[in-house]
Amino acid sequence: MFDSDHNALQVVSLFSGCGGLDYGFARTGFNIRAAFDNDAHAVSCYNLNHSSIAKQQVIDNAWMLETPADVIVAGPPCQGFSTGGGYKENDPRNSLLLATCELVVESKAKLAVIENVAALTNKRNQDYLQQAIQTLTEGGYSCSVQVYCAADFGVAQRRKRTVIFARFGKAPFRCPTPRRSHAPTVESAFHNMSSSIQAHNPKFPANGSKHEVIAKRIGIGQKLCNVRGGEASVPTWDIPEWFGHASKHEKKILTTIRSLRRRNRKRNFGDADPVSFLEISAEIPEITQNQLALLIDRGYMRKYNSLYDLRDTFNGKYRRLDPDDVSPTVDTRFGDIQLFLHPSENRGLTVREAARLQGFPDDFIFPEREKEAFRLIGNAVPPPMSIQIAKACRELLA
């Protein structure tokens, strides 16, 4: 899929994944000379779609002896920095951001593009970002840190990513603003989807199964959620077909606890706390502890010592996509029906639907193992975004 032009600016890709970031550079006149990743599935997928240049190996400086580069592009692992990954400060993969910057400095490449999660710029991760910038600056690079939203680049999702641009030379620079375009909707991204397209194999849950019963009760733009009110949240007690009948009085108890647990805070972390019987009875004077015990037995509540809380406190599952809007972030778990639902059918998303929402063309081939395919797609830079980033880089090197 990638054509080679050895007279073009030479690019080396580190932590290349399946090649979403590389896609844009290849499409805008750069030559991808080498790509490296330590994941066998990523390397295999990369080589199916680009010329077979990707190698599976631990990222070190050996490649620089034989592969000089004008541009280095890199997507070091981001799980420890992300909100979805739980801000794992001691995740050993966090060190790979700094290692990438050290490799850039050693290479003396004209330009480097390092992509990571938007949360890299958060206060909790600022030490890592500052160390990275310091390493590049002390190595002779000027840096610009940008946070981009994929929807601004014609991608049908609200994916935000941090991009570090590092240009060799002390002169400060203003990073060109990539050309933005209107984001397509989920419906338009899924247009003309057919079973003949690779990796599009819709799977419907069994009749009467938990997934089917719940999916039938989730409307467009809604999610299964007990801890938030409003029309977008469908609580378990409103799906008696699976979770059991709850009386009007029991629903009042549950919605009261839903409100109290966020209003009456006891800790300085998290967004809610269990509540006491005294707090509940102040809102519902007629309540009895026996009524609470029954709700506990039926799986709607749980008790912590003398405090009460809702049992299912996740902030949203079975999120049904809105066909007239962009998608939430396509992550590595996007194919899990418990997390995301097709906008009009009672099923999860296919690999190709996830790829469409990321902006991958239909001729981009993904592994047959769906778990690996979703992981590669969820970790990738959307191709329409990478094209505009590559164009911006060409301006910086002009």
UniProtKB/TrEMBL annotation:
Transmembrane segments: none
Pfam family, one: DNA_methylase
InterPro entries attached to this UniProt entry: C5-Methyltransferase, C5_DNA_meth_AS, C5_MeTfrase, SAM-dependent_MTases_sf
Record: active site: C78
EC number(s) stated in the UniProt entry for this protein: 2.1.1.37
Gene Ontology annotations of biological process type: DNA restriction-modification system; methylation; negative regulation of gene expression via chromosomal CpG island methylation
Catalyses which reaction(s): a 2'-deoxycytidine in DNA + S-adenosyl-L-methionine = a 5-methyl-2'-deoxycytidine in DNA + S-adenosyl-L-homocysteine + H(+)
GO molecular function, one term: DNA (cytosine-5-)-methyltransferase activity
Assigned protein family: Belongs to the class I-like SAM-binding methyltransferase superfamily. C5-methyltransferase family.
Protein name per its UniProtKB record: Cytosine-specific methyltransferase
